[in-house]
Design brief:
Strand content: under 5%
Low-confidence stretches: none
Number of strands: 0
Number of helices: 12
Distance between the termini: 46 Å
Order of helices and strands: HHHHHHHHHHHH
Helix content: over 70%
Mean pLDDT: 90
Largest sheet: none
Radius of gyration: 18 Å
């Protein structure tokens, strides 16, 4: 069931806790991945409103986390620290549902704002999660570890982790996560002069998405394929 369907179902039955889970665990993450900041803002407002009805201790750090995540996507560099602090609140309460994916979101935000210190800390914690039964989000953890190693200059480790991210996504059947990993894999491969195979795989994954879809991940994949085509034409 897609997040919007979960949100609609929870709204229909009028169950606040179910609605809050649908918003926090599904809706907000997907909206942020898709680059739909206006939708994410609306979902966060709904989550905050539901919290006034159902004031359980688990919700304040999640609300703070998503508020900061929206702000980082809006280019507020200082919000990276607020995301990290909110993660600390989740950790101290031992609230581990969706925690690994929250770590990946923090790493992405940190790297986008050149906060390698935060990304390194997240990569270390993500490596620990890979030793646990967290198969559903292994792809994202491998991906952010790979991106962090790349930023550190360790291209070999970056390539290995991005390849593992692609394989993990394939095993779990998570097409969007495979697209995210394959896009970064192709970008790295192009920089090292070995882009043909990675670009071919990215093209195959990209073609499985509906034409006209303009989520952030699909646009990034399309842009990377166009870069690859330009490089190929320039070298021919």
């Amino acid at each position: 069931m897609w997040p919007q369907e979960c949100i609609l179902a929870a709204t229909t039955i009028g169950h606040p806790v179910s609605l809050m889970h649908a918003l926090a665990v599904g809706g907000l993450s997907v909206s942020l991945w898709s680059g739909l900041l206006d939708v994410a803002q609306d979902q966060l407002k709904r989550l905050e409103a539901q919290y006034q009805i159902c004031q359980l201790d688990i919700w304040p750090p999640l609300i703070r986390f998503y508020r900061a995540a929206i702000d980082t996507a809006g280019r507020d560099a200082q919000a990276v620290d607020r995301m990290r602090d909110a993660i600390g609140g989740l950790r101290s309460r031992n609230l581990r549902i969706h925690f690994a994916m929250n770590l990946a979101m923090l790493a992405d935000a940190a790297l986008s704002h050149n906060r390698l210190d935060v990304a390194r800390a997240v990569a270390a914690e993500a490596s620990d999660y890979l030793e646990r039964d967290e198969a559903w989000c292994r792809s994202e953890l491998f991906r952010v570890i790979g991106l962090t190693r790349w930023r550190e200059g360790d291209v070999l480790s970056a390539a290995e982790n991005l390849a593992m991210a692609v394989r993990a996504a394939q095993r779990s059947g998570a097409l969007t996560l495979e697209l995210r990993a394959a896009t970064q894999q192709a970008k790295l491969a192009l920089q090292t002069g070995h882009g043909d195979i990675a670009l071919s795989h990215l093209a195959c994954v990209y073609q499985r998405f509906e034409s006209g879809l303009h989520t952030a991940d699909v646009v990034a994949a399309r842009d990377q394929l166009e870069v690859g085509q330009m490089i190929s034409r320039g070298g021919s």
